[in-house]
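Morning run. Coffee first, then this:
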Amino acid sequence: MSFLLILMILGASEAYPILQRTPAFSFETLGHATFAHITSPTPFNSSQLSFLKRFPIVQFDKGQDDNVPDLYDAEDRFIRAARQIKAVNPDAFCLYYQNLLIAFTMFQRITNITEAAPRKYYAVATNGEFVKTKPPYKTFDHTISATRDLFVNDCLYGINSGVFDGCFIDRANYAQSVLDTLNGSIPAHNWDINVTRRLVQGSKMALKALMTAVGEDHIILAKETSYDTLAEDWMYVNAMMVTDTFCSDYDHDQEIHQYDPKQCKLDIETVRNATRRGQLTQSHGMGFLNDTVQREYTIACFLVAHGNMSYFSYASSEPTLSWSLDGTRWWPEYDYALGAPVGEAVVSADGWTYHRNFTSGTTIMVDIYRHVAEIQWAH
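And here it is:
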């Protein structure tokens, strides 16, 4: 497919998608704007369901129910888990997981087809080898219409089950991050500049195809990869997870604690911009569960950006707990009085310090450069 044809398919448009049927949301407390992104190796028990029914949005990661041998494909395990959530909270929004690039074999509705004819669906480098985003797994090429069709049909499979309100798209802009931060090349994984440019365009084509297929009453949420430019997937979808380590002192890819003030500012501004457009965002912070200082900092960073349809989570970064139900908490701050924001945050002339007030009397100060924050809660 020519590059010109790819651009024509993407179709530059001034309009951008806005979610028309929205999850429960309120400024009353932070808990009214939370989400849970979790994995449990087995179906939920009654106490876990009592906990999860508090969250307006619940979504599952790859390993959901993977210790239960009766269902072999991840897709049907997701459906079983979502049915459990909907039974205790029919108003909860559940999102169906898809990984846009990595061909994990547990997703058998897709990979049973793609592995039978791999060169029909996967990215092939200039050297003729398969691209490996996460070795040993192959990488999907969404400039190929047959690949996009598989993902659209799979997303609709989840939605048509009656228990999913949209799809969560992991690795949505990973190819763009490779282009921007690694000069378009990861030689060990057979990523070269030509295939990277192709996959950047393919990712956008896939997001647009998914959004068109499900319609704006459903969510297509692009999970972003942290890198040094503001995300642009809002042009194609109606929701995004800003990064998986929103204003955290943790690098998820390297599994080390490392704070980046420039990235934190980009995270905040991405949420502020999405709020102005009326689009849904998820801000997923990570850290040690007993680190109350970092948790307050991440919460403060979210609150200076917080707007309508912006949702928050702060979960464990510990390797055995990250992205799991066991690493998810309902924090005391979720129940403190908040109220609507009194306008947007006031930003200092140098761009590093934010102040914001809420109608409850709660006040926020964040100095991103110095990595300090203060929240005065109106208890």
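The longest strand covers residues 280-287. Good start to the day.
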